[in-house]
Amino acid sequence: MLFPINPYGRSKLFIEHMLKDTAVANKDFKIALLRYCNPVAAHPSGKIGEDPFLKPTNLFPIIQNLVRGTLKEMKIFGKDYPTKDGTCIRDYIHVTDIAQGHIIVLNAFEKENEKLFNENIVIYNMGTNKGFSVKEVIEMYEKANGIKLNYTYGERRSGDATIALPDCSKIQKELGWTPKIGLEQMCKDSYNFVKMHPNGLYNE
User: Fold this and answer.
1) 19-32 confidence digits (pLDDT tens)
2) β-pair type (74-77, 151-154)
3) 55: closest CA among 45, 65, 46, 47?
4) How many CB atoms lie within 10 A of CB 36?
5) Which end of the chain, C or N, has fewer beta carbons within 10 A?
6) Residue 129 lies in domain
7) Which CA distances in Å does 77 have to 14, 37, 82, 144, 165?
8) How confident is the model at residue 120 (pLDDT cuts 50, 70, 90)?
9) Which of 110, 93, 106, 112 lies closest to 189 in space, CA to CA?
10) What value, to the nearest 5°, has the Cα angle with vertex 9 and ends 56 and 130?
11) What's the rounded Cα separation, in Å, for the pair 60 and 70?
């Protein structure tokens, strides 16, 4: 198993170890470890979405602040990675697809699905199995919403992997969960959330 390369990843791994230890100590526990890729966007209604109270470090909240005007220019960290456009590649997944994944896993537990209950710990990666670079996401956000985003390039950021594309086929094969929403709609739903909350959720 590869070890996480940054504190955020290590903190999640430590929590997984704690949950695994709990399941070993108490066989009554049945635990599903759901490893998301990059959750983004908002509910299609625009009523619920991501609006960090602290300064965001993830791409979509940064773009949203740029759209709101609370950020004048965003910085892409690194343009010399060994990718097609020099920027990092990630798998992005819509939050509503993640919510549906949770429901499917919970239903499987409730029905005592044999695939889950032959052991009391299961692990699923949750993503689209498709990778997009930071620059591709920015370009799609502009295209999907008919806007222009102001950005520049900076130095690489410590702890950023060049490519993060986990294999997310297991949950599809075992439970039939497949994400339905593509990157363009993710960008549209994100923008719709910003339009409905132009000052952010905390200033309404």
Assistant:
1) 889 888 888 888 89
2) parallel
3) 65
4) 18
5) N
6) 28-42+50-199
7) 27, 19, 14, 23, 19
8) confident
9) 93
10) 80
11) 14
In this prediction the pTM is: 0.89
Per-residue pLDDT reduced to its tens digit, 86-113: 999 999 999 999 999 999 999 888 887 6
Residue for token pair 């490519």: 163
Residue 198's identity, in one-letter code, is: P
Separation in Å, CA 89 to CA 29, 71, 123: 36, 23, 23
CATH classification at residue 163: 3.90.25.10
C-alpha separations of 168 from 87, 105, 128, 176, 197 in Å: 22, 14, 7, 12, 33
Chain centroid, CA 61 distance in Å: 12
Domain tally, the chain: 1
Tokens of 177: 């969960």
pLDDT, greater one: 201 or 178: 178
124 is catalytic: no
